[in-house]
Amino acid sequence: MFMKRLIFLLLIALVPLEISAQSRLSDKGYVGDVSLSASFDSQIGAGVDLLTSHGYSFGNGLWLGGGTGVCMADKSDGMMLPIYTEARYSFLDINDNAHPFVGCKMGYITDFDETISFISPTIGVEFKRFSYFASYKIISSLHTFNLGISCSF
Predict the structure, then answer these.
(1) Residues 131, 20: contact at Cβ < 8 Å?
(2) 29 phi and psi, to 5 degrees?
(3) If we measure between CA atoms, which residue out of 77, 80, 87 comes closest to residue 50?
(4) How would you class 124 by CB atoms within 10 Å of its CB: exposed for 0-12, middle for 13-18, buried for 19 or more?
(5) Fewest beta carbons within 10 Å, which of 9, 44, 80, 137?
(6) Structure pTM?
(7) pLDDT per residue as tens, the chain (153 positions)
(8) How far apart are the first and last CA of the chain?
């Protein structure tokens, strides 16, 4: 029950208050991102990831950066800390309002007892500053499917 309330409160925190006129990946320069995603797996139960990424947009839809955050799950011993690099490509010419994108995070995740590498390919759609995405996280023998929302700044 606690995890459901936490996910609900975090999703409300990401409700857009202001929407810019275009995709942040169409401009050159720094772009930051905060994302929230939820998952369920029979081994770890319900989980939530709150991540932040920071990097450089090349203005043509390509963005490269890195990030960190907090991952929590019902059946884990506590919080886990991911540290990763991320690449993202947004297809800017397809539609003025919605831009499909692909991306991938690669790095390490630790629970302070053990550090494990992970990879997480992502697909999604960007609406102005907000993105809705699905990702597949592979951590050793654990595979999870995540759904989430992110906000660029």
Answers:
(1) no
(2) 125, -170
(3) 80
(4) buried
(5) 9
(6) 0.81
(7) 555 555 554 555 544 434 333 456 678 999 999 999 999 887 778 899 999 999 999 999 999 999 999 999 887 767 899 999 999 999 977 667 889 999 999 999 998 888 999 999 999 999 888 999 999 999 888 889 999 999 998
(8) 32
User: Side chain identity at 41, as an amino acid letter?
Assistant: D
CA distance 31 to 44: 32
How many whole angstroms separate alpha carbon 71 and alpha carbon 114? 14
Q: Which residues contact 79 (CB under 8 A, 6 or more apart)?
A: 70, 71, 72, 111
Q: Regarding beta strands 115-127 and 98-110, do their DSSP bridges make them parallel or antiparallel, or are they unpaired?
A: antiparallel
Residue 51's identity, in one-letter code, is L
Nearest to 34 by CA among 16, 59, 22: 16
